[in-house]
Amino acid sequence: MFGLENKDIRMLLVVAVLTLCAPFILNPFPTDSALAQFNAGYPDLMQRFVIFGIFAVGFNILFGLTGYLSFGHAAFLGVGSYSAVWMFKLLSMNVVPAIVLSVVISGLFALLIGFVSLRRSGIYFSILTLAFAQMSFNLAYSVLTPITNGETGLQLTLDDPRILGVSATADGSIPVTNLFGIEMRSTYEMVVGPWAFQFNAGYYLCALVLLAAFYLSIRIFRSPFGMMLRAVKSNQQRMNYTGLNTKPYTLAAFVISGMYAGLAGGLMASMDPLAGAERMQWTASGEVVLMTILGGAGTLIGPVLGAGFIKYFENIFSKINDQVLHSWFAFMPDGLEDFVVFVVHPFIGKGWHLTLGILFMLVVVFLPGGLVEGGQRIAKWVKTRKGNDDETPGKTTPAE
Amino acid sequence: MDAILLQILNGLDKGSAYALIALGLTLIFGTLGVVNFAHGALFMIGAFCAVTLQRVLNFSYEDVDESQKDFLGNALKVKTPYVEAWFGPEFGGAIIDWAVPLAILFAIPIMIAVGFIMERGLIKHFYSRPHADQILVTFGLAIALQEVIKYFYGANPIQTPSPEALSGVANVGALIGMDFVYPVWRIVYFFFSVVIIGAIFSFLQFTTFGMVVRAGMADRETVGLLGININRRFTIMFGIAAAVAGLAGVMYTPINSPNYHMGMDFLVLSFVVVVVGGMGSLPGAVLAGFMLGILESFASMNEIKSIIPGIDQIIIYVVAIIILLTRPRGLMGRKGVMEE
After folding, report:
1. Distance between CA atoms of A34 and B308, rounded to whole angstroms?
2. What number of H helices and E strands is found in chain B?
3. 3-state SS class at B80
4. What sign results for the dihedral spanned by CA atoms B228, B232, B234, B239?
5. Do B320 and A131 touch (CB under 8 A)?
6. Taking residues B193-216, what's their average pLDDT?
């Protein structure tokens, strides 16, 4: 099916089920229970899961396959966002032309940057991409203000000259983004007993795009092109000595991953039509590196897991406050309770980044393969513990 | 003419900060072969050493002073720092005033300790791992360190004034027969960095320890085979590099109020500096630091900005890109470093 092996089809199905049923999976707790704050099934957050999933999948095509560590990928995301918003301002509120333009523009941008940066490898490549991204970020803040609207960020106004469509709706407000009439923000709420599940049109658009992007990345990983990129990672010098010019391959990988980032940026702007320069800052590039490594670089499903993991904990951890902690540890004696809350306090709420930094260090030190390797190790451990008398495999983990 | 000199001076103080951080980075890279993304965090920790010392010196007790009355006729509460109570208002006040320079003494042991702990606890395990892994783990460490500082000191910049005597401006122009003034502290910063850079170079050049370290930088294995514990010396060098970054941070506090992400802001630039200078070349790092600092300050002149708008924002990156593409090893890079 789709030209894939059984193993890959299984993985694609897992991702499909995860994304399409996300409103159920992420909403396991009834709305009025104490655990409701761990629910992540609201449209805004779910959209971010899949959009950053796309971003990380694209980054992985470059970093995971070729080993080139780019520290400037957020620039492509920012460029994608800006071009999508300009499309909304000038052409129509339909998301299709906006997303197409953002992919094309960021692809061209990536071609330019990649052509120059890929002349060097290793840390020099990282610094070059970092320099280009910081340059775009600084320019977006200063000279390019007519295009980017500087610090305020680019947003829709009531007097946008929209060629296909109206500048303002009948009741005098800014029209909303849509896909051939389906409004991106329209949400259907299904109430089942104490649960409330939200199905958002925008989320499902993003989810379908993620599936397409993921499918494409499987095909790239399994293609001769993907094999060539892996060969670049393992020994570029030897490739050159055999008389092969690796530059077109690495450049293609760079452009593809830049287009993925642009796609993510375009989707981000389609969900919420504004774009700011802070999306291009190098710490934003760092974030996608974190996601990819945390999930497992070079694996197919790793980046998606990493993106989901980081975005989930970013939102949930930062919502926990001292009161919540006190209610959790209420069973302890008073002094001990206060002490535990005092110890945990720096790691939650605004201190979430501390947890992220430490977690990330632990992953790099102990699990270079990321969450995927962790899953594989657990599976292996379960298998060996069961011994030979039980042939059934243990907990199944995503392959690769 | 004096405008040009002023820009050179402006560039020198920013350039000295770049040069000091880049020097530390290069020391770590040249000895241990580790790409340290947490170096900016070390710079920041140094700056917060100064903040801490200033706060400690300002610990005070409250006293009711009967001689002073507020407008209702009640006795006024007066805060007296303990230091002033112990050493008398004259000397104690001077100590508080000179908190930032004093913080140098306070920061050196702390930074060396931080460096030792970092090297022995974390970086030691990454010698044989790929450079990408080193970048990633130190990047994680930098995030964690900066969050710890944010937790204790808050997110806002903290004012740390320089000593009263050094806080004004000096008529530098008078020395060369022209008329322009320049902040004293920035001149102090420049000379301070020259002293530190000179100290590091002469330490490496004229002591036995430095000689062994240089030999180890050239060929670590052979030095190890001669029965010298090169790893221990490299650990010490890591501590020294951390101290250099920390001192750069301490002295930078009066120029720019420290906040928790100042390290990240400097990190990117100092990496650009290191790469422009040539990975692993100490003179290259210093040269590139000053050069980029001066170029940056020239680019921010109005005359130049009116020709090429926005050049001040991107000049460093443009120069870095040009140099990397035309001189692949940077200005003074050695052959065979980071070329795998």
Report:
1. 59
2. 13, 4
3. strand
4. negative
5. yes
6. 90
In a domain? residue A24: yes
Residue B340: is its pLDDT beyond 50?
no
CB A338 within 8 A of CB A344: no
Q: Is the dihedral of CA B31, B34, B40, B41 positive or negative?
A: negative
| Cβ-proximal residues to A127 (8 Å cutoff; 6+ apart), any chain | A71, B271, B272, B275, B320, B324
The CATH code of the domain that includes A156 is 1.10.3470
Q: How far is CA A42 from the centre of its chain?
A: 17
pLDDT at residue A392, rounded to an integer = 47
pTM value? 0.83
* Count of the separate structural domains present in chain A: 1
Give per-residue pLDDT as tens, A25-55: 777 777 777 667 777 777 888 888 889 999 9
Which distant-in-sequence residues (6+ apart) come within 8 Å of A362 by Cβ?
A: none
Q: Are B33 and B282 in contact (CB under 8 A)?
A: no
Distance from CA of A221 to the nearest CA of B (A): 21
A235 touching chain B per CB within 8 A: no
Chain B positions touching A346 (Cβ under 8 A) are 147-148, 151
**B226 Cβ contact list (under 8 Å, min separation 6):** none
Q: Is residue A374 part of a domain?
A: no
d(CA B90, CA B102): 17
Q: Which domains does chain B have, with CATH numbers?
A: 2-58+87-326 (1.10.3470)
A228-263 residue pLDDT tens: 999 988 888 888 899 888 889 999 999 999 999 999
Q: Assess whether pLDDT exceeds 80 at residue B52.
A: yes
Domain assignment of residue A25, yes or no = yes
For A238, list phi and psi in degrees, rounded to 5. -65, -40
Strands (E), A237-279: 274-275
Q: Is B337 on the interface with A (CB under 8 A)?
A: no
Does residue A316 form part of some domain?
A: no
Whether residue A391 is predicted with pLDDT greater than 50 in this model: the reply is no
Residue tagged 């880049």 (tokens) = B22
Residue A98 domain boundaries: 6-278
Chain A nearest-CA residue for B130? A122
Q: Which amino acid, one-letter code, is at A123? A: I
